[in-house]
Write a structure and sequence with these properties.
Mean pLDDT: 84
Number of helices: 14
Structural class: mainly alpha
Low-confidence stretches: none
CATH superfamily of the largest domain: Intergrase catalytic core
Radius of gyration: 29 Å
């Protein structure tokens, strides 16, 4: 059974715990109760001590060898390398190496001494540096996952990240193009290496990973269909996946006549380039690629898309906003949110509803006009 006592330091009550390591050697650990030592807080502090002792007993926490949190999360990151997909690991690595380790290395805080206030101060600093609340959420996910593993190993009594307040994430308002703007974009992007990606995304509202993962074998000219079943993502590593984001994303759509005509011309052009370039041509089944057959990278698509817009004085939107534009056009034609969900491959209809509430505005205007007419007609009669 864990024993301990109350001590006062810097105007606060601390629970001083008597723990034993795996070798049976006794070690002390100071835990901040968060209770001020002034006033009549002694009874409250004693209760906090009892709760902390119970928590340590329940978790059977041992006084493991002290390790700095910055060293621990680095070791945790290395241990995760073969448990998650390469691109996911690289995104973890970027966040941990660039942000989390440099900050906590300076703090020199031990994993066993890590408290919610340490993480809270880190989030506050990163917000001041200009990171968005959504980015902080990703940092939090890394920190929490690493601490959860420490909890499961009985190195810490609880996950301190669970007691941290996350910044409020502002609601994202998607941008979109009108049908006229899409027509202009299709005209202005002709001849660009990303023309096929823009063309297909405008019609089908594909994700960037889906358009880059699209293969000729997924296009059935005979049965007039196109199947979305593979994706390509990238951080440092280009990763092809024989699956989509979720089960609903794996979908078969009709091969629109305009798209069929476009794709047949594109396939003929690529076949001609392959014959001309011979062995120097990079052979693969991807639809969107360079003239030498080399597959396009996701970040290149986004970068060149922005340049196409800037060069032609078009409103700046993200490549992903073409997906929103497709939804907007489908809604304006009269399709309901359920049908749009299926076309886009959202797993949850609330995702579609949350992203595309703006496309219902025209319908609300019509509703307003109709109710005004109804009231006016009563007044006239």
């Amino acid at each position: 059974m864990t024993s301990g006592s109350l001590q006062v330091k810097n105007g606060k009550y601390y629970a001083v715990l008597n723990l034993k390591d795996n070798a049976g050697k006794r070690k002390q650990k100071w835990v901040d109760t968060g209770i001020e030592s002034n006033g009549n807080n002694k009874r409250l502090a004693n209760k906090a001590l009892r709760d902390i002792l119970q928590e340590y007993d329940d978790k059977k926490v041992v006084a493991d060898k002290p390790i700095f949190f910055s060293d621990y999360i680095l070791a945790w990151l290395e241990g995760m390398k073969f448990n998650i997909e390469p691109n996911t690991w690289e995104s973890y690595q970027y966040t941990i190496d660039k942000h989390i380790i440099p900050y906590f290395k300076k703090q020199k805080v031990l994993l066993q001494d890590l408290e919610p206030i340490h993480i809270q101060k880190y989030y506050t600093l990163k917000l001041k540096e200009g990171l968005s609340p959504n980015t902080i959420k990703h940092h939090h996910a890394n920190i929490r996952k690493s601490l959860q593993d420490a909890l499961l190993q009985n190195i810490i009594p609880y996950n301190v990240a669970d007691r941290v307040k996350l910044p409020k994430i502002n609601k994202f308002n998607a941008k979109f193009y009108t049908a006229n703007q899409i027509n202009t974009l299709l005209e202005k992007s002709k001849g660009s290496i990303i023309e096929p990606a823009i063309f297909l995304t405008a019609y089908y509202g594909l994700r960037r990973s889906e358009i880059l993962g699209l293969k000729w074998s997924a296009i059935d000219f005979q049965n007039k269909s196109i199947t979305i079943s593979t994706t390509v993502t990238a951080m440092k590593t280009i990763l092809e996946k024989e699956r989509t984001k979720n089960l609903s994303s794996n979908r078969t759509l009709p091969l629109i006549p305009e798209v069929e005509c476009y794709l047949k011309k594109l396939k003929a052009k690529q076949s001609e380039l392959m014959l001309l370039q011979g062995t120097s041509y990079v052979r693969n089944d991807f639809v969107c690629k360079w003239d030498n057959g080399k597959p396009l990278k996701p970040d290149y698509i986004s970068r060149i898309f922005k340049k196409v817009l800037e060069d032609n004085n078009l409103p700046i939107i993200r490549f992903h906003d073409l997906r929103h534009s497709c939804a907007s056009m489908l809604s304006s034609i009269g399709y309901d949110i359920k049908k749009i969900q299926e076309w886009l491959g959202h797993s949850d209809i609330t995702t579609t509803a949350n992203l595309y509430t703006h496309i219902e505005y025209k319908a609300k205007v019509t509703m307003g006009e109709d109710i005004a007419k109804a009231i006016d007609s009563v007044q006239v009669s």
